[in-house]
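Worked example 2:
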Amino acid sequence: MLVIDTISELQKVLVDERSKGKCIGLVPTMGALHQGHASLVRRSVAENDITVVSIFLNPTQFNDPKDLERYPRTLEEDCRILEECGAQIAFAPCVKEMYPEPDTRQFSYPPTDVVMEGARRPGHFNGVCQIVSKLFQITDPDNAYFGEKDYQQIAVICRMVEDLGFKVNIIPCPVIREESGLAMSSRNTLLTPEEKEIAPKIYQILKQSTTLQLSIAETQKWVIDEINKVEGLDVEYYSIVDGNTLADINNWEDAPNVVGCITVYCGKTPIRLIDHIRYK
């Protein structure tokens, strides 16, 4: 596997591969890879001739400097995982390589990027669009793979792709969960053993909520109340939305695709965990 840290070298390699008619798959990541990431890479390897995995901790999507500082950095282990998965290229640039000058571009895709995470993390999705659009411009992939754990992020990226006219297929991939049901996340490594015991209750309660015969407002309240009853868990928000636009809905019949999206703080530090559940 090639490990490349400059845009010019990566583009040189990809131009050569594309001249041979090779199909390019891209898996954008911020590193600290786990089996959820590995599932994306393996799918890309199966569906493309060349798989590029970017490992770049993007500062422009962090609105909390402490969150950026705490984010795990494990490049050596990441490369080992990628080799095992069969990726051909790891692209691991430094910040100066990706942002030689400040990126002042502004992206706006309401309601998709202004609700939930967008409302609580100002600038987050603008930073996501900045880095993903850069990666698309650099690699010109045929297919790009994203995990559905970040459900809202995929919706925003799809809007961006349509807006900017990228000729790339966005491939959403199912959430990979630990045996406990906890959605795999790089942030899980920050959880203490005690916190790892209580965090799975988030998904357990979400699953249980799909069996209730309640209104949307009642379901939201029930989920929030049940999770907040667990010592060490604190719900930031729980929204039941149109799964396509992410707009709030009032009745189950308001959208053909209904998704519940949640963010919960876990532990004393605390660690911010996201998840979602499909109702229909």
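The radius of gyration is 19 Å. Residues 124-139 form the longest helix (16 residues).
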